[in-house]
Design goal:
single chain, alpha+beta, Helix Hairpins, Beta-Lactamase, 3 domains, four-stranded antiparallel sheet, two-stranded antiparallel ribbon, 11 helices, 8 strands, HAMP_dom, methylation, membrane
Length: about 600
C-alpha cells in the first residue's frame, strides 16, 4: 500500500503537478478511443482478409464489410466526440476551477509575500464549492483584518501605556534618587548626630558631676553664710554697745569741757583779783610791796592756769570731734553691719533657693543624661533604619532603571509588531485609516515638491543657518520658505481632519523641520518658556525619536513617546522620495486614545 502511494505521489509530482495537467489527463480518454479505433480498423482488415480467403459470396462479403465500416466509423465518431468533449471539459473546468484558484493563489501569494493588500476580498467567480471556498477565505481575511486591526490598536495602547509608564517610572526614579540622596544625607546627619549625642551625653554627665560638686560647695557656702550672718549679728551687737560707750564718752567729755570752762572763768577772775591786788599794793607803797609780789605770782599762776585750760579745752574739743566722728562712724558701721546682715540674710535665702534649684537641676540633669542615653539608643536604631532605607532606595532606583529598560524594550517590541503588521493594508480600523490619510497627504505633497525641485529648488540643501536670538534654536535653508508655502495648508488640514490630531509636520533625513502647523509656527519672542510650545517650525529634531522618524523608509513607522512639552503622543511617519532618493518623512501626531475610539 505504501509503495503504491509513493508511486502515485511520484507520478503526480513528475507529471500532474498542476490542475491544468490533471485536467489534461482527460485527453487519455481520446487516446484510448484512438487506440480502440486503430484496433478496430486492424481487426476489420483481418476479418475482411479471412472472409476473402474463405471465398464467401460477394453479397455476403459486401454486407459484412459494410457492417464493419459502420462500426469503424462509429468508433471514429466516438473518438472525435470524446476529443471535443474532453477539450470542452478541460476548457470549462479551467474556467470554473483553475482560473478562480489561480486568482485566489495570486491574491494569497501577494499577502503571503508581506506586501499584500488585505483590504481586498477574493473574487467570487463561480457558484459552487469554489465560491464557498472564496467566501470562506474572505471571511477568514475579514477576521484577519479584524485581528490585525485589534493587534495594532492593542500595540498602540501598549506603546501609550509604556510611554506613560516610562514617564511615571522616570518620575519615580527621580523621586527614588532624591529619596536615596535624602536618606544618605539623613544617614550622614544621623551618624553625625550619634557622635554629637555621645558627646552631649558625655558633657551632660560631666555637667551633672560638676553640678553635684557645685551643689556640695553651695551647701558648704550656705553653712558658711549662716555662720557669717551670726558673726555679723554679733558684730552689730558689739557695735551698738560700742556706740553706747562712745555716746557716754561724748557726754563725759562735754562735762569735762564745762568744768574747764569753769576753771577758765575762775582763772580770769583770779587774774582780775590779782590785778586789783597789785593796784592796791602799789597804792600802799612799801607796805604793800610784799602783797604786790604775791599778787603778781597769783596773777602769773592765773595766766598759766588760763593757758593750761585753753590747751585742755582745745584737746577736749579735738577729742569731742573725734568722739563725735567715732560715734558717727560707729553709727554708720552699725547701719552697714545691719544692711550687710540683711544682704547676707537675703544671700542666704538666695543660696537656699539656689541650693534647691541646684538639687532640682542635678535631678533633671540626671534625667536628661538618662534620656540622652535612651535617645542615643533610639537614634542608633533610627540610623540603622535610615541606612536600610538608603540601601532600599538604591535598590528601588536600580529596579526602576531595570523597569525603565524593560518598558523601553516593551515599547520597542510593540513598534516592531506594528512594523510587521504595517506590511499589510487592512482597509479596516481607525489606525489604518489614519495611515491612509497620512499617505495620501504625503502623495499629494510629494507631487508638488517634486515639481518644486524640477524648478531648480534644492530640496536636499542641508546648509542649516541659525536664526539669531532664537531659543529653542531655529534654522533656515534655501528652500524652507517655499516649502512652508506649499505644505503648511495640507499639514493643517490633515491634523484637523484626524480625530485626536495634534500636529503634522515634515522633517528631512537629519530631522530638520521646514514646516509645521500654523498654530505652532509663531514668530519667536526669545523667551524659551513662551517659544517652546508655539515655535516648532524650522527646528532641528535630532533626538533619538526624531532621528528614527527622519530616517524611516518603510511604508510607515508608528511611534509613541513623551514630547519635550510633557505630553504623550503617538505619531505616524510616512517617507518622502524624490527621484528614488529618500528625503525625509511626514510626521502626523495624534492622541491614540481618541483616534482608536473612532
Amino acid at each position: 500500500m505504501h509503495a503504491f502511494k509513493a508511486l502515485y505521489e511520484s507520478v503526480e509530482r513528475q507529471f500532474f503537478d498542476s490542475l491544468t495537467k490533471k485536467l489534461s489527463s482527460l485527453f487519455l480518454m481520446v487516446v484510448v478511443s484512438a487506440v480502440v479505433y486503430w484496433v478496430a480498423v486492424s481487426i476489420r482488415a483481418d476479418i475482411l482478409l479471412q472472409l476473402r480467403s474463405a471465398q464467401l459470396p460477394a453479397g455476403t462479403l459486401g454486407m459484412i464489410e459494410g457492417k464493419l465500416d459502420v462500426l469503424s466509423n462509429a468508433i471514429l465518431g466516438s473518438t472525435l466526440f470524446t476529443l471535443c468533449l474532453v477539450s470542452f471539459m478541460v476548457w470549462y473546468f479551467r474556467h470554473l476551477i483553475v482560473r478562480p484558484v489561480t486568482q485566489m493563489t495570486l491574491a494569497l501569494e501577494g499577502i503571503a509575500n508581506g506586501e499584500g493588500d488585505l483590504s481586498k476580498d477574493l473574487p467570487l467567480l463561480t457558484h459552487d464549492e469554489i465560491r464557498v471556498l472564496a467566501s470562506t477565505c474572505n471571511r477568514f481575511l475579514a477576521k484577519q483584518r479584524e485581528i490585525i486591526s485589534s493587534v495594532q490598536a492593542l500595540t498602540v495602547h501598549i506603546a501609550v501605556e509604556s510611554a506613560r509608564s516610562l514617564k511615571n517610572i522616570s518620575d519615580s526614579s527621580d523621586s527614588a534618587t532624591h529619596q536615596a540622596r535624602f536618606a544618605r544625607e539623613v544617614m550622614e546627619q544621623s551618624n553625625d548626630a550619634v557622635g554629637r549625642i555621645a558627646e552631649v551625653s558625655r558633657q551632660t554627665q560631666g555637667i551633672s558631676g560638676t553640678t553635684a560638686q557645685n551643689l556640695s560647695m553651695a551647701r558648704d557656702s550656705y553653712t558658711e553664710l549662716l555662720e557669717v550672718t551670726g558673726n555679723i549679728s554679733e558684730i552689730s551687737t558689739s557695735l551698738n554697745e560700742f556706740g553706747t560707750l562712745v555716746s557716754a564718752l561724748n557726754q563725759r567729755s562735754s562735762s569735762i569741757k564745762s568744768i574747764v570752762g569753769l576753771i577758765q572763768q575762775i582763772s580770769s577772775q583770779t587774774n582780775l583779783l590779782a590785778l586789783n591786788a597789785a593796784i592796791e599794793a602799789a597804792r600802799a607803797g612799801e607796805s604793800g610791796r610784799g602783797f604786790a609780789v604775791v599778787a603778781d605770782e597769783v596773777r602769773t599762776l592765773a595766766q598759766n592756769v588760763s593757758r593750761a585750760t585753753e590747751d585742755i579745752s582745745q584737746n577736749i574739743d579735738a577729742m569731742l570731734l573725734e568722739v563725735s566722728s567715732t560715734h558717727e562712724q560707729t553709727t554708720q558701721i552699725s547701719h552697714s553691719a545691719r544692711e550687710t546682715q540683711k544682704v547676707v540674710e537675703r544671700a542666704s535665702g538666695h543660696f537656699e533657693s539656689m541650693i534647691g534649684d541646684f538639687e532640682s537641676t542635678h535631678i533633671k540633669l540626671e534625667d536628661i543624661a538618662s534620656h540622652i542615653l535612651q535617645f542615643a539608643d533610639s537614634n542608633t536604631g533610627i540610623n540603622n533604619r535610615v541606612t536600610q532605607i538608603h540601601a532600599d532606595s538604591q535598590s528601588i532606583d536600580q529596579r526602576m532603571q531595570h523597569s525603565a529598560t524593560a518598558t523601553r524594550d516593551l515599547s520597542g517590541v510593540a513598534e516592531k509588531v506594528q512594523a510587521l503588521l504595517g506590511r499589510f493594508v487592512l482597509g479596516h480600523g481607525a489606525l489604518d485609516a489614519g495611515i491612509t490619510r497620512a499617505s495620501h497627504c504625503r502623495d499629494r505633497l510629494q507631487v508638488r515638491l517634486a515639481a518644486l525641485q524640477r524648478e531648480g529648488v534644492n530640496l536636499f540643501d542641508q546648509n542649516y543657518k541659525l536664526i539669531p536670538g532664537t531659543d529653542p534654536k531655529q534654522y533656515t535653508t534655501s528652500y524652507s520658505e517655499r516649502f512652508a508655502q506649499i505644505c503648511q495648508e495640507e499639514c493643517d488640514a490633515l491634523t484637523k481632519g484626524t480625530l485626536g490630531g495634534k500636529v503634522t509636520f515634515i522633517v528631512d533625513a537629519k530631522g530638520y523641520c521646514p514646516v509645521n502647523n500654523s498654530w505652532v509656527s509663531k514668530k519667536p519672542t526669545g523667551d524659551r518658556a513662551v517659544d517652546l510650545p508655539v515655535c516648532r517650525n524650522k527646528r532641528m529634531f535630532a533626538d533619538p525619536i526624531g532621528l528614527r522618524a527622519a530616517g524611516n523608509q518603510q511604508r510607515f513607522l508608528l511611534q509613541t513617546y513623551l514630547r519635550d512639552t510633557g505630553e504623550i503622543m503617538t505619531e505616524i511617519d510616512v517617507p518622502f522620495f524624490f527621484d528614488g532618493r529618500h528625503w525625509g518623512n511626514l510626521r502626523m501626531g495624534f492622541d491614540a486614545a481618541q483616534l482608536l475610539t473612532e
